[in-house]
Design a protein that fits this description.
Keywords: Amino-acid transport, ATP-binding, Nucleotide-binding, Transport. It comes from Rhizobium lemnae. It is built from ten helices and ten strands. It is of the alpha/beta class. A hairpin with a 2-residue loop joins strand 4 and strand 5.
Length: 234
């Protein structure tokens, strides 16, 4: 679904990404982990079209979208849940979903998503600013899924969530992949993220330092020492 080739870019004259190569298949979860400042969120912005300067290529379902603006990328099938500012606080839950463009039969799609996210369905008339962290995250997921994207980019989806709500978020991400959606997961809770993923990539200084099957990375000594932390015996 998604191919990233020799991606270089950043802000102003500074390159944050210094040569990224990644692939993502339909129904696959790819976790991108790494230290703060490694370029993970910048990679997410590049994929969805928010990075101001970049070179290389990004292919979506074999189509080159490198120069396609962010709005068109969304219509072509890329969903995005940013780490912050991911819902409109002044709008109700329903209104947050209604304003998403490019959706066929909006009312029916909202009904489908309310079945997937019953907690926000119960509060559909409440303003998003009144939601708890977990409810807000559900609304952000639902907004990103309105257009039925083939690829969804999640930037730190468990940030600021309690451990219980983080577990619930990971469960929903796993369910999402089983529907055939490809998931690019940027995540600080690297071990938990890799545990539900098919593959992983660990970034360092704007490059992919390590990559491979998620279960292999979880037991890789270099990954553990440098990026994931030492696993504690239960």
């Amino acid at each position: 679904m998604l191919v990233i080739e020799n991606l270089v870019g950043g802000y102003g004259e500074t390159d944050i990404l210094t040569g990224i190569d990644l692939t993502l298949a339909a129904g696959e979860i790819l976790t991108v982990a790494g230290t703060n400042g490694a370029g993970k969120s910048t990679l997410a912005k590049a994929v969805v079209g928010l990075l101001p300067r970049m070179s290389g290529r990004i292919l979506l379902d074999k189509q080159d979208i490198t120069r396609v603006p962010v709005e068109q990328r969304a219509l072509k099938g890329i969903g995005y849940v940013p780490q912050v500012a991911n819902v409109f606080g002044s709008l109700t839950i329903t209104e947050n979903l209604e304003v998403v463009e490019g959706v066929k039969n909006t009312r029916a799609r909202i009904a489908e998503l309310f079945e997937l996210f019953p907690a926000i369905a119960e509060r559909r008339r409440a303003r998003a600013s009144s939601l708890s962290g977990g409810e807000r995250q559900q609304l952000a997921f639902a907004r990103a899924l309105m257009t039925r994207p083939g690829v969804i980019v999640l930037d730190e989806p468990t940030a600021a969530l309690s451990p219980i709500m983080a577990d619930e978020s990971f469960r929903r991400i796993g369910e999402l992949a089983r529907t055939g959606t490809a998931v690019l997961l940027i995540e600080q809770r690297a071990r938990q993220a890799l545990a539900i993923s098919h593959r992983g990539a660990i970034m360092d200084a704007g490059k992919v330092a390590l990559s491979g099957p998620a279960q292999t990375l979880l037991v890789d000594e270099r990954a553990a020492q440098l990026y994931l932390g030492v696993a504690h015996a239960s």
